[in-house]
Amino acid sequence: MSFLSATLSRVKPSPTIAMTAKAAELKAAGRDVIGLSAGEPDFDTPQNIKDAAIAAIAAGKTKYTAPDGIPELKQAVCTKMKRDHGLEYTPAQVSVGTGGKQTLYNALMATLNDGDEVIIPAPYWVSYPDMVLLAGGTPVEVETSLENNFKLTPAQLEAAITPNTKWFIFNSPSNPTGAGYGRDELKALTDVLMRHPHVWIMTDDMYEHLAYDGFEFCTPAQVEPRLYDRTLTCNGVSKAYAMTGWRIGYAAGPVELIAAMRKVQSQSTSNPCSVSQWAAVEALNGTQAFLAPNNEIFKRRRDLVVKMLSQIDGITCPTPEGAFYVYPSISGLIGKSSPAGTVIDSDQVFATALLEEADVAVVFGAAFGLSPNFRVSYATSDEALTEACARIQRFCAALT
């Protein structure tokens, strides 16, 4: 009998972390690798947020806190939800975790039983299905299409719902595609959910502030207030505020669910870092003036990457509405061979060959549940993106 839990055999390590680690390994060996695999802004954390953390340390705010967040941060979340979405929450309806991933995981651990199904549109953030599996549930992956800009249709959602469906996980703008649902598109999905009162909605809004070309972000409970009592709205400070390493995520939802999530967290990690919590208070309550200029930089980078990748024969690269990813299709390259003799028979092989033969790290589409594609993170400098895309162009041009 294996010493390890049988549950662990149901999940796989994060492919994005694996690709980033492989790129770092080659770089340490002296290779000039350009990494486009990590979903992490290259901007520094804004100074006012860093100052708040320094002040918290100086004031001795370095002790244990309540298991799921200090009252000041919970109130800041409530204020943010009212300010940005018109949604009323009390601190008792807020949970703060060690990153957005923990809040999602806590909710699944607190609610899933054997046989419970969770609908996940594909492509999806790599962790969704595995978190469902760890919590004992069954992920139900619903493939979207490039032709529909990787957006789930109401008919697809309707067809995926069964009596066993417990959650629908919704992410807009999306990781990995950057696709964002407009209000009318989201309303069409919430209309379906209104017909199925046993289905709860877990919405991952991590990229809400990263939206371009006039795209206006909205969240399900905002679009359909009647879903408020069965929606968990999840978010965090990592992306828009360039605070990935601070590890603060949060969720707002019904009191009973939040209490259950608190119970899970109290017996696992307990409270998030106290200093990071005070920094997050400043992030949510302080100036938001840097968001717009940062978005302009991301938009410029997006346009650069889309333009250069769209020039490649065999690659189709749609223009996303938000986040900082593009998700090109390589359907026109399948079956070709690289100069080193690698036959490109999958997106995983393509990504591996691109790293080993062209020193560019991307993440293969199968990791996100939809092939043949790859994900590029354009959260890095214009210079690095230009050189990386030029390498991808040369690599693809050399395929025969």
From TrEMBL:
<keyword id="KW-0663">Pyridoxal phosphate</keyword>
<dbReference type="InterPro" id="IPR050596">
    <property type="entry name" value="AspAT/PAT-like"/>
</dbReference>
<keyword id="KW-0808">Transferase</keyword>
<keyword id="KW-0032">Aminotransferase</keyword>
<comment type="subunit">
    <text>Homodimer.</text>
</comment>
<dbReference type="GO" id="GO:0006520">
    <property type="term" value="P:amino acid metabolic process"/>
</dbReference>
<dbReference type="InterPro" id="IPR004839">
    <property type="entry name" value="Aminotransferase_I/II_large"/>
</dbReference>
<dbReference type="Pfam" id="PF00155">
    <property type="entry name" value="Aminotran_1_2"/>
</dbReference>
<dbReference type="InterPro" id="IPR015422">
    <property type="entry name" value="PyrdxlP-dep_Trfase_small"/>
</dbReference>
<dbReference type="GO" id="GO:0030170">
    <property type="term" value="F:pyridoxal phosphate binding"/>
</dbReference>
<dbReference type="InterPro" id="IPR015424">
    <property type="entry name" value="PyrdxlP-dep_Trfase"/>
</dbReference>
<dbReference type="GO" id="GO:0004069">
    <property type="term" value="F:L-aspartate:2-oxoglutarate aminotransferase activity"/>
</dbReference>
<comment type="similarity">
    <text>Belongs to the class-I pyridoxal-phosphate-dependent aminotransferase family.</text>
</comment>
<protein>
    <recommendedName>
        <fullName>Aminotransferase</fullName>
        <ecNumber>2.6.1.-</ecNumber>
    </recommendedName>
</protein>
<dbReference type="InterPro" id="IPR004838">
    <property type="entry name" value="NHTrfase_class1_PyrdxlP-BS"/>
</dbReference>
<feature type="domain" description="Aminotransferase class I/classII large">
    <location>
        <begin position="32"/>
        <end position="392"/>
    </location>
</feature>
<dbReference type="InterPro" id="IPR015421">
    <property type="entry name" value="PyrdxlP-dep_Trfase_major"/>
</dbReference>
